[in-house]
Amino acid sequence: MQLVRQNEEKAAERRKRHTGGRARAVVAVLLIAALGSACAGESGDRGGGDRGGRGGDGGGGGGGPVESASATPGRAGPDAGKKAEAKKAEARKADAAKKADAVKKADAKKAEAAVAKAQALRAVAAKKWKLAKTPLAAPPPPAVKPRITTRKGFEVTGGATLPPVFTNVPTKEKVVFLTIDDGAEKDPELLRMMTELKIPYSAFLSDYVINDNYSYFKKMQARGVSLHNHTLTHPYLPGLSYEKQKREICGQQEKIQKRYGKRPELFRPPYGNYDAGTLRAAKSCGVKAVPLWSSEAFPDHMEWREWDRDLHPGDIVLTHFRGKGEWKGSMPDMIRHVMKTITDKGYAVAKLEDYV
Ligand SMILES: [Zn+2]
What we know:
Blueprint (H helix, E strand, L loop, with lengths): L1 H18 L4 H21 L6 H9 L4 H8 L8 H49 L36 E2 L8 E8 L5 H10 L4 E4 L1 H4 L3 H9 L3 E4 L12 H19 L15 H9 L5 E2 L3 E3 L4 E3 L11 E5 L10 H14 L3 E3 L1 H4 L1
Parallel strand pairs: 1-5, 2-3, 2-8, 2-9, 3-4, 6-8
Antiparallel strand pairs: 6-7
Helix pairs in contact: 1-2, 2-3, 2-4, 2-5, 9-10
The structure holds zinc ion (ZN).
GO molecular function, one term: hydrolase activity, acting on carbon-nitrogen (but not peptide) bonds
InterPro entries: Glyco_hydro/deAcase_b/a-brl (IPR011330), NODB_dom (IPR002509), Polysacc_deacetylase_ArnD (IPR050248)
GO biological process, one term: carbohydrate metabolic process
């Protein structure tokens, strides 16, 4: 019933807009429409805890205000016009809020549909690549990247101004990050597999193992993978002088910039070993952060670094570009194994660069 009335009154509103609107009766009618639409907005809403609820309060709730509003024209005083104006403004506000809410809901629905579609495609790819389960969809990246600090026990003297060293990214989301080191194995299957499965990962490259085939990593980069620094020749850095460390780290910054057009912001010291000089050298040539890892993936097992031998939100998982000659399987075998572990534990793989 109310809906019919509302429609009539909305039509009246439209008519009024065309004729310029003089009569108070029309204003009152508008008022009814406004209250009606505010209430409709409220009942269509989640239940009135938010802005919709406040609009409802103003109107007194339910059908009551509609009755009294239709009575007002009879006792229209001098400030009735002002009141009606105020109500009109309120109605416009409520209407705008309602529209904004509708847009938000539509956007959320669209995003949901996009995720569902991507997951359906991913399920097909998971079957093709013989994954035990379809990888879970990662939540949208954070609007603001979390503040990352050096892990307790990983500090160096004077480290407060140096790039942070960490094994986990602070987040409450059930996501982990996949990082692949060195670059010896250049398996084209890996590129195809990860692209089709849409699993993000980051590469930490050492020049001495990639210099026989830079183009493999160019292809990787073209597929959305960020290439980071893992030194020129993979030495044990704390054993080197500051100058030598700088050459290893900054030399690789230059190489990657020259070959791939982008200077890395992340650096991982070989074996996870570093000292204050390492971090100073890294900072001097543009390194922003030093992600280590909390677990390591192999084709047939995981190696855990945390006491509970488990994954945690924001954990960084390490693995390597290795082939059948170096470990018990291919790169796709390793991915199958690590993805089973990650998915079984209810985690999704997110893009490290979205968080760091
Ligand atoms: Zn390495």
